[in-house]
Every structure is written in structure tokens, then in C-alpha cells.
Description:
This protein is of the alpha+beta class. It is built from seven helices and six strands, in the order αβαββαβαβαβαα. Strand 4 (98-105), helix 4 and strand 5 form a beta-alpha-beta unit.
Amino acid sequence: xxxxxxxxxxxxxxxxxxxxxRNYNDLDDEVKELIKAANWVRKYAHxxxxxxxxxxxxxxxxxxxxxxxxVENAAxxxxxxxxxxxxxxxxSDGFKEFTNAAVVxxxxxxxxxxxxxxxxxxxxxxxEDIIIYITRATDYVEQLAEQNGPVLCTSxxxxxxxxxxxxxxxxxxxxxDDVYNLNLP
Length: 185
């Protein structure tokens, strides 16, 4: 049974990037630019209920950077996370392919990765693995270098392994047929 599963999982996306933690000052300038953009936009977050500001920045394949911050709403459902805000801005300008992203928020002892909904939203546009840099926010962009804090270097395929894609891209029918013998059409 395990051999059948391994063969069928071969068609699903797998992480091409090995996760690691690096210090901010050890990153290349292009990555620092992305983190700075996410840290900068975070100050515009509208968070009267949680008081938890998040900033995100996505680089398109063409090299443009789109930023977003979280925007809360009293009804909660209309709230939008920083990552989805940035993606929506890029998509509304005609960009749907991203090479990397940065997410910043502040929690004293931990880094804050994208929530599950944001992971799925990023996966929607991940025909290839998207590298994601996650670090703690600072009050001022200049403090990023001064503090030289840890940056989790990961990817969407690491954060959401075997993530759901659209029905045409997913190749799950053989898994269902072979493992459960359902012979679905």
C-alpha cells in the first residue's frame, strides 16, 4: 500500500526549498528589501480589535513588490490578512506569479507564519514553490539591521505540504482509485 501512495504522490507539488533560519544581516539585499517593505506597510494595519499588526510583501516574477497589511472589521468575516491583501493588490494589477514573499509581525518569543487561509491563498498562485521569509517586526525599518534578528526562510510548499490546488491541477484521482478501490469516473 505504501508503494502505491508514493507513486501517486509524485504528481503533487513538493517543496524545492530547504527551510532554514538565518540572521537578517546575512540575507541578500533583494530579500532585505522585501522584508523592509513588509515591515513598513505593517504600520498602516487597521487592528482595533486584536491590536496585532501584520505586514506582508510579495515580489512578482517581473520584480514588482506588492505590500499589504491586515485590516480588521467589527463583523470579523470581512477582515483581511496582510498576505491576502498584498496578493489581491497584485492580482488586481494583473500579476499572478510570485517568486518570494516576506511576512512580519511582532510576538516576543516566536515568529508568526501565515495563517491557514493565507497559506491556501498563496498556494492558489504557486505553480512553482514561493520562498517566504518570516521575521519579527520592528518599530522602524532601520532597526531590522540593528537587531539582526532571526528570519525563517521557508516556502509555501513547506508551510502547506500537498496543498490543494484547483481541480484541473490536482492529480488526486489515482490516489483515491488505487488506495480505496472506488473506481471513480
